[in-house]
Structures are given as C-alpha cells and as structure tokens.
Amino acid sequence: MADIHRITPANTGLLERIAQDVFDEAITPALLQRYLADAGHALFVAVDSGLVVGQIRGIVHLQPDRASDLYIDNLGVSPAHQRQGVATQLVGALVEWGKAHGCTYVWVATEPDNDSGVPFYKAQRFTGKTLAWFESEIRG
To answer: Model confidence over 16-31: pLDDT tens digits?
Structure first.
C-alpha cells in the first residue's frame, strides 16, 4: 500500500518525483501555491518508495441553504499502480478531510465512457446520475 499525504506548503517536495499519468499536466509552482493557500481546497497524494503514484483533489462547496458538499475535482493513479487500492485510499482520505470541513455529501463528474472511472465510483457506492454539462470560456 502507498502512503497517503495531504500536500501543504511544507511538503511540496513530495511532488518532485511523479509517475506518468498521475496529473493531467505538469505542476506549475505558482498555481500550486495559490491552490494550497485556499482552505477549501485539498490535494492528497499516494507515495510509493518516494514516487507519487496517485493524486486526488477536492473542493468544499459552501452552500447558503444546506450543509457544504465535497466535490472530487480530479483523481489520477499511474497505470502501474491501478487496481491496487490506491484510488480507494485517496478517496477515503479526501472524504475524511471533507467531513472535518462540514461536508455531508460528496460528488464527482466523469464521462460516461470512462471505462475505469465509472466502475470504480460505482464500487465506492456512488450513485450514477445523468446530467447535462455546459461550459464557456470567460472572455475579457
């Protein structure tokens, strides 16, 4: 099993060795610092022999009319470490963090054809819902 760590400004050195396909893009130090400075954001990593083999990011959504919810923003595990419980460990760590921040609900969005993600979330007892996704660039 990998060791799970919440990334803070004090331990960003853990991100010096990252396995392939854990993050979608290379980490930008300035963006990382901005992310970590927000108390409503969390980044957890799974480390095996000094190598980051998985990551999960979450955001607390504060609500004016109900308890906060936890959004799983991104989850990635290197192909060599998939199906070994790493993603389950990461989700568990993030959910515990969310509970400590008053969240009573957790959700995630993924594409219906995500052949590894959909079965994983179902195995974690997430209920699938159909939704329409709308997006737009913010223009000056």
So the answer is: 999 999 999 999 999 9
Q: How many domains does the chain have?
A: 1
89-125 pLDDT per residue, tens: 999 999 999 999 999 989 877 777 767 766 666 777 7
- Classify the C-alpha dihedral 80-86-91-94 as positive or negative: negative
Dihedral pair phi/psi, residue 59, rounded to 5°: -135, 130
DSSP state of 27: P
Q: Taking the model in full, what pTM does it have?
A: 0.86
The answer to whether 7 touches 94, Cβ cutoff 8 Å, is no
Residue ranges making up the domain that contains 61: 3-123
100 lies in some domain:
yes
CA 18 to mean position of chain CA atoms: 15
Residue 73 CB partners (closer than 8 Å, separation 6+)? 57, 58, 59
DSSP assignment letter at 128: P
